[in-house]
Design brief:
By secondary structure, this protein is mainly beta. The protein has two domains: 39 residues, no CATH class; 96 residues, no CATH class. The protein is built from no helices and eleven strands. The strands form four sheets. Strands 3-6-9 form a three-stranded parallel sheet, with no helix packed on it. The chain has a three-stranded parallel sheet with strand order 4-7-10, with no helix packed on it. The chain has a three-stranded parallel sheet with strand order 5-8-11, with no helix packed on it.
């Protein structure tokens, strides 16, 4: 899903009418990407996935909430989650570094116990964590 400009394309929950039971955007997909779109007053619900084999469901990582990356430290992009709620029945990491210089901020965001203790993953950028930023402020 791609917008023309994140300052102009805004999807916002406003508690009007029946939107409390049917949010303005719902995505049921294995993989979802949003580019140049701002989401305001959001709730992120992580669903547990069905598993086969010997791995217990409660031990399995369902996914990542973000995958952000910038080409250089001068790139002004990044993700900011402000006043959000993260909940669900699956296990998740806050993010993974899609490229170097990844920058993600969770600000005044409520997180249930579904977030893995390590919080995030350097992914293919292990050893380069010094150029990445994950900031969580409650």
């Amino acid at each position: 899903m791609q917008g023309s400009d994140a300052s102009k394309v805004i999807i916002q929950y406003n508690d009007a009418g029946l939107s409390a039971s049917s949010g303005p955007l719902r995505v049921d997909a294995e993989y979802f990407v949003a580019i140049n779109i701002t989401f305001k007053n959001c709730i992120i619900h992580v669903k547990r996935v069905a598993t086969k084999g010997k791995v217990k469901r409660e031990q399995m990582l369902t996914g990542y909430i973000t995958a952000q990356g910038r080409e250089s430290k001068e790139d002004p992009s990044g993700f900011v989650f402000n006043n959000c709620v993260i909940e669900g029945s699956g296990r998740a990491l806050l993010g993974r570094a899609y490229r170097g210089y990844s920058r993600v901020v969770f600000y005044e965001t409520s997180m249930s116990n579904i977030i893995e203790r390590r919080g995030w993953d350097a992914w293919h950028r292990q050893g380069q964590e010094y150029v990445m930023l994950l900031l969580v402020y409650f």
